[in-house]
Amino acid sequence: MSVEHEQDERTIRCLVAKVGLDGHDRGAHVIARALRDAGFEVIYSGLHRSPDEVVQAAVQEDVDVVGISILSGAHNTLVPKILDGLREYDAFEDRLVLVGGIVPDDDESELREQGVDEIFGPGASMDEMISYIRKHAPER
Amino acid sequence: MSDLVADLLAGKHSALARVITKIENRSAGYRDIVSNLHEHTGSADVIGVTGSPGAGKSTLVDKVAATYREQGDTVGVIAIDPSSPYSGGAVLGDRIRMASNAGDMDVFFRSMSARGSLGGLSTATTDAVTALDAFGKDYVIVETVGAGQNEVDIVRTADTVAVLVPPGSGDDVQMLKAGILEIGDVFVVNKADLDGADRTVQQLREMLQGRSTAGHHGASDTEAAAGNDGADSRGAASWEPPIVETVATRGEGVEAFIDALADHSVHLDRTGQRQQQARERFAAEIRTLLREDANALLAAELDRQGGLDAYVDTVVARETDPYTVVDDVLEPLRECLEESDRR
User: Fold this and answer.
1) What pTM value is reported for the model?
2) Interchain CB distance below 8 Å, B88 and A5
3) Which of A2, A38, A53 sits opposite B85 (nearest CB)?
4) What are the residue ranges spanned by the domains of chain B?
5) Is A6–B115 a contact, with Cβ atoms under 8 angstroms apart?
């Protein structure tokens, strides 16, 4: 069943990335699992990645969605570095960049301006995230 | 579309990544891309790494890639993980183990989902190897799905196959079984610091001594030798798979493993087996493509004739039988072929 299903529609690939010195990945695991069950292919980066490594993974894996999970508060430093890296490798335009974690309202608009497509804070539901991705996954 | 090929050949990473995506999705134009890449391939050494889940494949691949990089070579890695039979989704976690090569763009690491394929590889793997080869990678390492006993497709893609056997993999009867243990050119007992490693090495050695042909690639010796100069080259063509002990997490034994891979590579060149393998591989690929395309042609023809349902009805009603139906459906095709023969 799944094989035929995949031929009908393109398989969406997502990177779930933990960046910086944030050691909490239970949330990232839950999200990876939920995205898998939604039929997506999920690449999990593992903990403590540098922005360079996230860019490397996003480019090489040619993911449709770059999901960055940050709970440490360092988003203003780390996320722009990832965005710059993606642009450097010509891999920004046709990719969704999502941030999940604890981001103060003031920072949200700043991040969006820099190129983040959507931010999911505490209380966001998995269904919300999955339907957002389905709706906004880039055409290729 | 040809822009993408040009960009790939020019060394642009995002183009290589996108080509592999198109190959994986079988999206429009991927055949032309692979066709155009073909002439640029043939220089990469393709190494397959297989073994049971948790045997340490990813960790070993990481260390091997790092060592090749130290030698100044470039590396492409394709790591395949299973996909869900229910949702079609997958969590691809091999990348987590690639810590030694983090941030090094000259190790191109790509995770693939098996997408329902059962042989330990995805159907797109061979074409993805083509892309990495054309990109100019010196080594392409293909890491299979964590394999059990019968996931032996890797033989059809790799020049050299390494089989990882962790300690405590069962008694000596397991070693007698057909399947994965027949395909190794190099055997690796990873986690060699664990209890029982010596015993596993011993069992492997007994298994290897007992077998008459030298691995999967040796099985075709007869043909290769017949083309050369008879019995002598046949003797030289036999390869005895070495058993290497490693502790991949600490990098122990990685040098020995790489030496073993290099020895096998030299052996392939010396005996002409590399060429022989390539011929067999291309023959198999052509056969597969022919089958797929012929199937597609037939499916289209069936649709034109109004689908299978009407035929099924007549078969159910015992008015005709499946063999006659097939003859009927294929009749126009047969006529076409006969006509083109006459011309």
Assistant:
1) 0.84
2) yes
3) A2
4) 41-271, 288-342
5) yes
DSSP B86: T
* Whole-number Å distance between alpha carbons of B209 and B192: 21
CA-based nearest distance B135→chain A, Å: 13
Size of the A and B interface in Cβ pairs below 8 Å: 106
- CATH superfamily for domain A2-131: Cobalamin-binding domain (3.40.50.280)
- Is the Cβ of B108 closer than 8 Å to some Cβ of chain A? yes
The Cα of A83 is separated from the nearest Cα of chain B by a number of Å equal to 15
CB B16 within 8 A of CB B131: yes
Q: Is B62 on the interface with A (CB under 8 A)?
A: no
Closest residue in A to B100 (Cα) is A53
Q: To 5 degrees, how large is the angle CA B282–CA B283–CA B286? A: 85
Question: What is the C-alpha to C-alpha distance for residues A69 and B36, in angstroms, rounded to an integer?
Answer: 40
Question: Is B239:B195 a contact under the CB 8 Å cutoff?
Answer: no
Higher pLDDT, B103 or B326: B326
Query: Chain A within 8 Å of B11 (Cβ-Cβ)?
Result: no
Residue A38 three-state SS: coil
Please say whether the beta carbons of A85 and A51 come within 8 A: yes
Residues of chain A with C-beta less than 8 angstroms from the C-beta of B87: 2, 36-39
pLDDT in tens, B133-174: 999 999 999 998 877 666 677 888 899 999 998 887 766 666
DSSP A45-86: --SSB-HHHHHHHHHHTT-SEEEEEE-SS-HHHHHHHHHHHH
* H or E element in which residue A134 lies: helix A126-136
User: CB-CB: which of A36, A60, A90 is closest to B89?
Assistant: A36
- Contact (Cβ atoms closer than 8 angstroms) between residue A83 and residue A42: no
Averaged pLDDT for residues B119-137: 87
Beta strands per DSSP E along B42-100: 45-51, 75-81, 90-92
Out of B87, B105, B111, closest to residue A39 by CB: B87
Cα(A20)–Cα(A13) distance, integer angstroms: 23
Full 3-state SS string of B234-274: HHHHCCCCCEEECEHHHCECHHHHHHHHHHHHHHHHHHCHH
Q: Which residue of B has its CA nearest to A51?
A: B103
Kindly state the tokens that stand for B314: 């007549």
State pLDDT tens for residues B15-40.
999 999 999 988 888 999 999 999 99
Nearest CB to B92; choose among A10, A42, A50: A42
Label residue B297 exposed, middle or buried (CB < 10 Å: 0-12, 13-18, 19+).
Answer: exposed
Q: What is the CATH number of domain B41-271?
A: 3.40.50.300
